[in-house]
Design brief:
173 residues, alpha+beta, two-stranded antiparallel ribbon
Length: 173
Amino acid sequence: MSGGAVRLDWREIGSKAGRASGEVVEEAFVTLYLNGHELVTIMATPLQLDALGLGFLANEGLIMGMDAVDHVHISQESCCVDVWTRHAVVVPERRVITSGCGGGVTFIDQRLGIDPLEMDLQIDSGRLHEVFNLLQQKDSLYARARGVHTAGVTDGEQILAVAEDVGRHNTVD
């Protein structure tokens, strides 16, 4: 699996004319299979693919939690995520193409609405700014290559989970 970026050399034109090199965010086709059937191909940064696949399924309402999951397999080439569930999953036939940059897909009827997340957590705006700054550490993909979106989960004190991806919707999944 890659580190989410590839090293490239290029020529710069302008005030800094000359050769340069650095990391550029990687984007790849990642195909998600559900119980042996191809579900969708996502343009994504090939990182945390198990979380991306499971998050996509959960956000689409196809699984309701980890209890539904039997196992997850990531192909050696990091191009396929196979998710096997403990019970059959009915995939809606209707696919909705979204207006995202690459024209994403969803199975959810947006007219149905989504219940709001219920929680008691309240974060002072100053603390929220501090926690936000924790998302992009020195070793983050953003610090190395820029051009990525970042999402995180916090308890108000620390970052519990972080995801970086070329697609902002992928970071949430």
